[in-house]
Design brief:
The chain has 550 residues and is mainly beta. Among the domains are: 163 residues, Methylamine Dehydrogenase, Chain H, CATH 2.130.10.10; 221 residues, YVTN repeat-like/Quinoprotein amine dehydrogenase (Methylamine Dehydrogenase, Chain H). It contains four helices and 36 strands. The N and C termini lie close together (7 Å). 43% of the residues are buried. It holds the Pfam family Sema.
Length: 550
């Protein structure tokens, strides 16, 4: 078997065109320089990983290794895209993409536009205009004031709600709101419903993460009798019992950076779960007196302590968010370095008492990769699973980091690393502070009690990188498996898609480099299609459909 480096893409005007290895408006001299640079970059990766590559011998890499072992005098067009198609977004600011797993259709959100694209051709199936709209930071809602001017709509996040056949789209307009749309007709006006309050960041750059996951059973966390989910069972024809089936309803998990943009942001939670029920759509899923499924930052820290949300997902009975944030904060004191953290909350916790956050530390000799840039939840291949002592059916977290520089370690360098970690029996969600002794069992406390709640852990999740480089800034990651092998696809800040083999929990290597972005950064939200044979690559101005059949 071999990897196919053909890329299939569609044009913004709903037709396709062929591209050479560079942007259409570049000169032949630019093309020559670009190809030379790409070949040199691949040579750098080859040099860094040659010893690791020599240890590998399996069918997956036979064809690739033939090409990589060519002499320096031979042509090596591994980075050159001789045949490609591209879907270009006119507004030059694509923000997010998501796949409907049931149909394979791709949804892409940009500035003032939302697209529903066919899976393979990337031709446009439907298009919705989301802005500009008359808006103002002084207006709480659409009708509350007259001082409005046209504002762009920046897509803050997309999620598919399969059970309701809805696409959830959140944008910066109207203080930062979410709305749902018909998954099969995104511009159907009579289906669109908007949140009645602001729930996401209301500016262009502040981070927002959304995803659909399981929520608590009901308002009290105690199952209520639901006659729609009741069955009666006859036992020996002499007595009847009624069994209530408790089905956890899906919710929308949302995390947003405090934007301090306008005067209506004080009540927006940092982390929350929102209802997806028709009658309470986008309300906090459980609201109580002083509690509920939301976490708010203390008011005095909101303008000074910045938390950037990198990604989110559900694994088992927990919902997770990955963040970048200062290690600490003292008003008027010293600057703290930026670190990365993993936030966890039990999905059945109706009060978010189980909210816990711990540092993520990825380091090797003399280098600490402190800036998390993307996370991806997937399964391991057999070899990786064996090295971790888990099953190929267990969840694995893949994360890419960059070493930060500067006083607060916030400036990304060209030193990057890939990390993997398992989720089974996580003993590292602990606090260095002494917890209050109680009579509750560990399982009772695990998913929420009003003691030992809201733990800010100091004991880090520590790991060595699977692979690292000093030649690229990693920006995105996705993975796939084929038989025993785990293959990672890594995006870079200069538009390259790197293919890497993850051998085990501490060893891997990069063996191919494709120029997909034409020098523009590859964004988060790398998505594999339903077959796993293709990856969708998002840049600020285009979407690419890359064939990576294993």
């Amino acid at each position: 078997m071999k990897f196919c480096d053909r890329i299939l893409i569609g044009d913004a005007k709903y037709s396709s065109h062929h591209l050479k290895l560079i942007e259409p408006n570049s000169s032949e001299e630019d093309a020559s320089a670009h190809a030379s640079s790409a070949t040199q970059q691949e040579s750098d990766f080859d040099s860094e990983n040659e010893s690791a590559r020599q240890k590998i011998n399996f069918k997956l890499l036979i064809e690739s290794r033939k090409r990589l072992n060519k002499s320096a005098n031979e042509a090596a067009p591994n980075n050159i895209l001789l045949d490609a198609h591209r879907f270009n977004l006119d507004e030059q600011h694509s923000r997010s993409q998501v796949i409907d797993p049931s149909t394979g259709r791709l949804y892409v959100g940009g500035v003032n536009n939302l697209y529903d694209l066919h899976a393979s051709s990337l031709s446009v199936k439907a298009h919705a205009v989301t802005g500009p709209e008359e808006d103002s930071l002084e207006c709480l809602n659409r009708e509350s004031c007259n001082r409005k001017t046209p504002h762009n709509s920046y897509t803050k996040g997309l999620a598919v709600y399969e059970k309701g056949s809805k696409l959830i789209e959140c944008s910066s307009l109207f203080q930062g709101r979410c709305r749902w749309r018909n998954l099969y007709n995104i511009d159907q006006k009579d289906v669109i419903r908007e949140s009645q309050r602001n729930v996401v960041a209301n500016d262009r750059f502040s981070s927002t993460v959304i995803f659909v996951g399981a929520g608590p059973p009901n308002d009290d966390g105690i199952p209520k009798i639901n006659h729609n989910h009741m069955i009666s069972i006859s036992i020996l024809n002499s007595m009847w019992i009624t069994v209530t089936l408790v089905i956890a309803e899906d919710v929308l998990y949302v995390a947003s950076t405090y934007a301090h943009n306008g005067s209506y942001w004080d009540d927006v939670p940092a982390v929350a779960s929102l209802s997806l029920a028709q009658e309470t759509l986008f309300d906090v899923s459980v609201q109580g007196v002083g509690t509920g499924t939301e976490i708010k930052m203390e008011r005095q820290f909101r303008g000074q302590y910045k938390i950037e949300y990198v990604g989110g997902f559900q694994s088992g009975r927990f919902a997770y968010f990955a963040t970048r944030q200062p290690k600490g904060y003292i008003p008027g004191g010293n600057t703290f370095p930026i670190i990365s953290k993993l936030v966890r909350v039990c999905t059945s916790d109706a009060h978010f008492w189980s909210y816990t956050e711990v540092p993520l530390e990825c380091s090797q000799t003399n280098v600490t990769y402190n800036l998390l840039t993307d996370v991806y939840l997937s399964k391991p291949g057999y070899d990786l699973a064996s090295s971790l002592g888990i099953s190929v059916e267990d969840d694995i977290l893949y994360a890419v980091f960059v070493e930060g520089t500067g006083v607060d370690k916030s400036v990304p360098s060209m030193h990057s690393a890939l990390f993997t970690g398992k989720f089974q029996n996580l003993p590292w969600f602990k606090s260095a502070e002494r917890c209050q002794q109680t009579k509750f069992s560990g399982q009772e406390v695990l998913c929420g009690k009003d003691v030992n709640s809201y733990i800010g852990g100091d004991i880090a999740i520590e790991s060595k990188p699977v692979l690292s480089t000093r030649k690229a800034r990693f920006t995105a990651v996705a993975t796939n498996t084929t038989r025993a092998n785990t293959v990672a696809f890594i995006g870079t800040h200069d538009g390259r898609l790197l293919k890497a083999v993850v051998e085990n929990r501490t060893a891997g290597f990069i063996y191919r480099s494709l120029d997909v972005g034409g020098g523009k950064p590859i964004l988060q939200d790398l998505e594999l299609d339903g077959t796993g044979d293709h990856v969708y690559v998002l840049t600020p101005s285009s979407v690419s459909y890359v064939t990576v059949q294993l």
